[in-house]
Amino acid sequence: MKHHRRTPTAAEANDVHPTGPHLNRRQLLGGALGLGALGMLAACSAPPATQFDTSGPPTPGGTLRVGLAGGSATDSLDAHSPVNSGDTARVINLYEGLLRRDDNYELEYRLAESMQVNDDATEWTLVLRDGITFSDGRPVRPEDVIATVERVRDPDDPKNGASMMAVIDTMEVVDERTLIFKLSSPDAELDDSFSQYQMGIVPEDYDPSEPIGAGPFTLAEFEPGQITTLVRNENYWDTVAHLDRVELVNFYEEDAMLNALLSTQVDAIGQINPALTRVVNADERLQVLNSETGMWLPFTMRVDTAPFDDVRVRQAMRLAIDREQMVNQVFSGHGQLGNDMFAFYDPGYPDHLEQREQDIEQAKQLLAEAGYPDGLEVDLVTSEIQAGAVRAAQVLAEQVQEAGITVHLHQVDTTTFYGEGNYLHYPFAQSFWYTRNFLAQVDQCATDSAPFNETHWQDEDFEARVAQAQATADDQQRQQKIAELQEEFFDRGGYIIWGFSNQVDAMQKYVMGFEENATGLPLSGYNFQRAWIAEVNE
């Protein structure tokens, strides 16, 4: 006989689960148990593994409970302003873009049937799929695409993708499915800009407090910093989701999130520290997704603020760290070495450059030349904004001591870290980014108009060459220009990009439909549309 795994009631989910410790909701979200309890839970509290039927077609129905780290009172439903992992999961499931990156990091059409560029990259023609609708049943029209672009680049309230949309001069509706973008300057990668997860298409009368999108789910409940409940969108244009509901539960501490998985308070968790894979693998009820990605967890040095306004100090900081040790200690070896350049999967990534290695003597010499012969003291603001962030800060502080650099760590909660007047103002801090190509990424973080210019990088010549690369229709020539721009970051940039982390997620073995992927986003890019819950074999 087969039957569905029973989904607990809301009261049970917020109070006690029969197979785990007695955690109420406040304890669950705030972190009731420490890391020392993990081994005990894995070894002593785990019930025997159950056999699930994974051979048949996906099973319809059920609720998937997903634990995510971070979240705060400033969490958002806005399609175009995601900041943390919870925001990202919400926008990906409530909204749909014209394109997206698939598991192999290839462009995939979604609401668009096609998007073609002319020979000189000054005009793009978009054709929408026939018959697509928003969650309220209204058709997705070219006018809605226009409204989305105008909302994103509103000069009085620009959203995350504003800099990418600035190149669009005019938009002309041809018919009920066709729209022409005419550009003020050539852009050969506008389709990639529209594939970013913060570019979901919304209706002309969009209100983020009552979100209407074209994604696989709709909103049922939203408590910022705590829980979000999504329900299946029966009007979804593609294959309708198998699940009835998805509950996104925020955790302030990673150990609490893992404890919730071990005690089956949640079914899956995204973005765990790779060091915790041993705990998950020790429990025969659980499984791990371990995806190689271009996700990066950099240190940010403001190039306009002392002491980092001196390129020699920035170079010294980069030479004082041991990248291989960082990857091993922070990612438990589940990652790839970074070389102070992002967009690892971009075809134009200059992997011919020699890998930067630790050189303590050269770091000391550079500091002396910069006026710090007796060493340097700096403050580093850190927060668990992403799995491994605080550990990375601790490792850096240990490593650079040998070069005479003293790093004073200031750990804050995520709400404080991203608070107004804090984030983007720290002289020395951290950030995290998912996998993007170079031109899409540089528009986000390294131009004068970038919404998240964390290093305050401003260079007119650099930006002119970015525009030239965007205007180059020939792929090989554009990739060469991108490689040259990347070398600027290698030589004098404000990021310490020491590694690219694998994306490690964990889930109960009855959770099906997720695949390892290169996008850098957790849980197969938060693609809950294809997730399902297996039936028990009895």
Report on this model:
It is a single chain. With 538 residues, this protein is an alpha+beta fold. Helices cover 28% and strands 22% of the residues. The chain contains 18 helices and 24 strands. The strands form 7 sheets. Strands 3, 10, 11, 12, 13, 14, 16 and 21 form an 8-stranded mixed sheet that branches. It has a 4-stranded antiparallel sheet with strand order 6-7-9-8, with helices on one face. β4 and β5 form a beta hairpin. The termini are close together. The N terminus is likely disordered.
What is the alpha-carbon Rg in Å?
A: 23 Å
Number of alpha- plus pi-helical segments: 18
Distance between the termini: 5 Å
Q: Total strand count, please? A: 24
Helix content: 25-40%
Mean pLDDT: 89
Kindly name the structural category: alpha+beta
> Which blocks of ≥5 consecutive residues have pLDDT under 50?
1-47
Q: Strand portion, in percent?
A: 15-25%
- The backbone outline, from C-alpha atoms, is globular
How many strands, what sense, and barrel or not for the largest sheet? 8 strands, mixed
